[in-house]
């Protein structure tokens, strides 16, 4: 089979299209014929060697955890699925080796769910990691009907899902983003503010009493304004800054595969209640170029490789 691989840590130049053996199938594993693979920044951070000690990598490795495709083979104990089933998954295994940017991928059955008929494969591949990150952050925060939430990085891949999911739960959403993305945030149901110096004052103009929840999907200095904005009984969750837990008594979150939550997200997207923004698609032979585009950091929405 054909796959995008890297045989050593480093930059985008490490990528090459190679021929690999078909995936090994374990007792609780599916082999999925990949139709589309969603790309995420964590993929190139792993390739760059920045997460050594946190995530194990067996080289040569194929990147990608987000996948949508069709079941090609089933393990001996996978009664939930049959050959031919359309599925999507946040197929993160314990070791990075056989990822989704390939013609076939081994998918742990615990990570997969059926793709609804109303959701196309490209959108399905764009959903898992970012959608689950947003949903699990909201769950961890305790956000509910009537809450006021500030989302840092609201126009990004995780943030745009976070805005929509928070609105679906009846929350008021204030979102930080560059001005060029403000109309987009309004379409999603958020009240946009420009990030940077003076952020606390701008948020206080909209929410004089502060906010109940802060969701940080941006990192950097985003949490610096937390003491000025978070109510005394409020909660902060970050996917990028451990200060959320160590300084502010909140949560520092690393997304987990969860087939049940992914099924919920897929249903919302299929029903039109959750908008999945696709920035660009690339064919497998141009997957290295797709990652180069992702690393530029200027896209709104997901980049997807189609196979």
TrEMBL record:
Residues 10-305 form the Enoyl reductase (ER) domain. InterPro entries: ADH-like_N (IPR013154), Chloroplast_QOR (IPR052733), ER (IPR020843), GroES-like_sf (IPR011032), NAD(P)-bd_dom_sf (IPR036291). GO terms for molecular function: oxidoreductase activity. It holds the Pfam family ADH_N. This is NADP-dependent oxidoreductase. It comes from Microbacterium radiodurans. The lineage of its organism: Bacteria, Bacillati, Actinomycetota, Actinomycetes, Micrococcales.
